Amino acid sequence: KVEIRKAELQDCVIVDELLTKLIIDEKQYDNNIDENFKVSSYYKNYYDKESDCLLVGVIDDKIIGYIYGYIKDDANIINKEAKLDALYVEEDYRHQGIAQSLIDSFLNYCKEKEVKIVEVNACSENIHAINLYKKNNFQTTKITMKQEI
């Protein structure tokens, strides 16, 4: 059984490692990603900010996944919006409902903060991520197109 909890400072090193894995994993969908890229000292800047939400999934005292998002600071929007920025679960723990538990917890945080819209980006070829987000009622509202030159 996974425990979802707010990340603490000592968790940030592990969550940075998971972000590195997420970025490397996305290399299969985006050849512009440097496979040698390594994240360090990133989430320590966000774990305790009021407008940010960094949650970890823990099994047997081991962090096996996380979700990070934040409330957008944009005076031009009518409804308060949040961005689900990163979601990752270790490969050995996938397809066990952990990502769903992380999403549910993040959406609860958003509701508590009176957020009306949550946005997420996914690589267009990452069918697993897209299906997970669609299952959670996310809808395509914009399409970004790129051209390599």
How would you summarize the topology of this molecule?
Elements: E1 3-6, H1 12-25, E2 52-59, E3 62-71, E4 81-89, H2 98-112, E5 117-120, H3 127-135
Parallel strand pairs: 4-5
Antiparallel strand pairs: 1-2, 2-3, 3-4
Which regions have little confidence, pLDDT < 50, spanning 5+ residues? none
Task: Output the radius of gyration.
Answer: 15 Å
Q: What percent strand?
A: 15-25%
How many beta-strand elements?
5
Q: What kind of oligomer do you see? A: single chain
The SSE string, one letter per element, is EHEEEHEH
Helix content: 25-40%
Gist of the model:
This protein is an alpha+beta fold.
Written description of the protein model:
The chain is built from three helices and five strands; from the N terminus they run βαβββαβα. It has a five-stranded mixed beta sheet with strand order 1-2-3-4-5. It is α+β, with helices and mostly antiparallel strands and 149 residues long. The longest helix has 15 residues, at 98-112. The protein is globular. It has helices at 12-25, 98-112, 127-135; strands at residues 3-6, 52-59, 62-71, 81-89, 117-120. The model has no long low-confidence stretch (mean pLDDT 94).
What are the salient characteristics of this protein?
149 residues; alpha+beta; five-stranded mixed sheet; 3 helices; 26% helix; globular
